[in-house]
Write a structure and sequence with these properties.
Elements: H1 2-25, H2 28-65
């Protein structure tokens, strides 16, 4: 969980920086890069959630059957 929190903080800082760069330069590439960061963080959050569910329910249930 600590890794996920650190990545969220870094992504938030990156999004703020990219937003500021877009405001000052009006170049669309900064918005595209921000969108890529958002998509990557959502994908990463889904992977972490899937791993959490796997650990929490599947592996615990597997021990019950053994």
């Amino acid at each position: 969980m600590l890794i996920m929190r650190l990545l969220m903080v870094v992504a938030a800082l990156l999004l703020v920086m990219l937003g500021g760069m877009y405001i000052f330069t009006r170049r669309q590439r900064y918005l595209r890069m921000a969108w890529q960061v958002v998509r990557f963080m959502v994908l990463l959050a889904l992977v972490f959630a899937l791993l959490f569910v796997l650990e929490r329910y599947v592996l615990v249930a597997w021990r019950v059957f053994l």
